[in-house]
């Protein structure tokens, strides 16, 4: 029996239905949002102004789509434009096919060639905001997760291609139906000295944030001093409703939690997130999902203090483009 000749080519406008057919074949261990639709693919991938069809590589056997891989780039420092320094492989998928291993390897080779040709200095498998150009909510949940820690096939594949573990990430969830923020003397003092300012779909959002989240609603919470209106920290939540697969509508993803350096080590992160969750609860949001690097002890302490529950873990990989 002869092996089929697998060809690799850039995306065509007629491809989406066949890409989605391959997507729907994937095991739950892939961590992909199911069921997927043309509308969601358009919203979170194809409509992005920086979408480049040459970065979406399609594998075909005769005329049948048997896999695809999609890579993009992150933003520059102030998120005002695209930067080609870091290339991100957002999705790698192959159908149930006798040559599946060869298809996956071939797709990786094609993506690496594309990233090098467009100027990438570093190549990543998966990303975390803001290095998350496509598939927010469609792959990994509230942020791109990379490879699920239980996915041994993909872990072995990337390691065999010279990728190293960049970061291990934990996905957390918090139901808000009975949420109560913690109470202690320090947090009571914070309520006297600080306020939380909520901005819904802020008009002054940077270009990159608008591109990544598209038409989904966002709420940006600022932690401000009552004394002089100094902003001390921030956190953003985005509406995962269109891509939520968990029971109960109204889920939001939490990203970009920051307490600015001069205000750290005071418990302000717990205060900021706790007060934000109270406001979301009051507006009818039922659950929040977020991710934290496993080595980010301050972030994990905040989530544990607020009774977030661990759902799963993921792995991000990288290597230099010269390897």
**Major sheet size, sense and barrel closure:** 13 strands, mixed
CATH topology of the largest domain: Aminopeptidase
- In CATH, the homologous superfamily of the largest domain goes by the name Gcn5-related N-acetyltransferase (GNAT)
Shape: elongated
- Which CATH class of the largest domain applies here? Alpha Beta
CATH architecture of the largest domain: 3-Layer(aba) Sandwich
Euclidean distance between termini CA atoms: 36 Å
What is the total tally of β strands? 13
The portion of residues forming beta strands comes to 25-35%
Given as residue ranges, the uncertain stretches (5+ residues, pLDDT < 50) are 245-249
Total discrete domains: 2
Q: Roughly what is the average pLDDT, rounded to an integer? A: 92
Radius of gyration: 21 Å
Assign a percent range to the helix content.
Answer: 25-40%
Q: What structural category arises from helix and sheet content?
A: alpha+beta
SSE pattern: EHHEEEHEEHEHEHEEEHEHE
Number of helices: 8
């Amino acid at each position: 029996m002869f092996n089929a000749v697998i060809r690799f080519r850039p995306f065509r406008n007629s491809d989406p239905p066949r890409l989605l057919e391959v997507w729907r074949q994937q095991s739950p261990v892939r961590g992909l949002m199911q069921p997927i639709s043309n509308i969601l693919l358009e919203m979170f991938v194809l409509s992005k102004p920086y979408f480049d069809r040459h970065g979406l590589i399609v594998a075909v056997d005769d005329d049948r789509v048997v896999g695809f891989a999609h890579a993009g780039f992150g933003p520059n420092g102030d998120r005002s434009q695209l930067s080609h320094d870091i290339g991100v492989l957002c999705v790698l998928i192959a159908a149930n096919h006798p040559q599946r291993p060869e298809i996956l390897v071939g797709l990786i080779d094609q993506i690496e060639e594309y990233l090098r040709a467009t100027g990438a200095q570093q190549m990543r498998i998966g990303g975390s905001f803001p290095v998350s150009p496509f598939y927010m909510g469609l792959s990994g949940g509230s942020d791109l997760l990379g490879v699920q820690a239980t996915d041994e096939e993909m872990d072995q594949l990337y390691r065999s291609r010279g990728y190293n573990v960049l970061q291990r990430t934990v996905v957390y969830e918090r139901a808000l139906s009975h949420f109560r923020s913690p109470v202690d003397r320090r947090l009571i003092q914070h309520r006297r000295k600080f306020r939380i300012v909520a901005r819904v779909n802020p008009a002054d959002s940077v270009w990159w944030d608008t591109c990544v989240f598209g038409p989904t609603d966002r709420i940006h919470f600022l932690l401000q001093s009552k004394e002089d209106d100094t902003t001390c920290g921030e956190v953003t939540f985005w509406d995962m409703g269109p891509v939520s697969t968990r029971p109960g509508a109204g889920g939001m993803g939490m990203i970009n939690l920051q307490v600015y350096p001069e205000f750290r080590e005071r418990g302000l992160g717990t205060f900021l997130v706790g007060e934000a969750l109270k406001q979301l609860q009051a507006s009818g949001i039922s659950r929040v999902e977020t991710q934290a690097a496993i080595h980010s002890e301050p972030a994990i302490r905040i989530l544990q203090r607020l009774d977030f529950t661990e759902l799963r873990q993921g792995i991000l990989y990288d290597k230099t483009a010269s390897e």
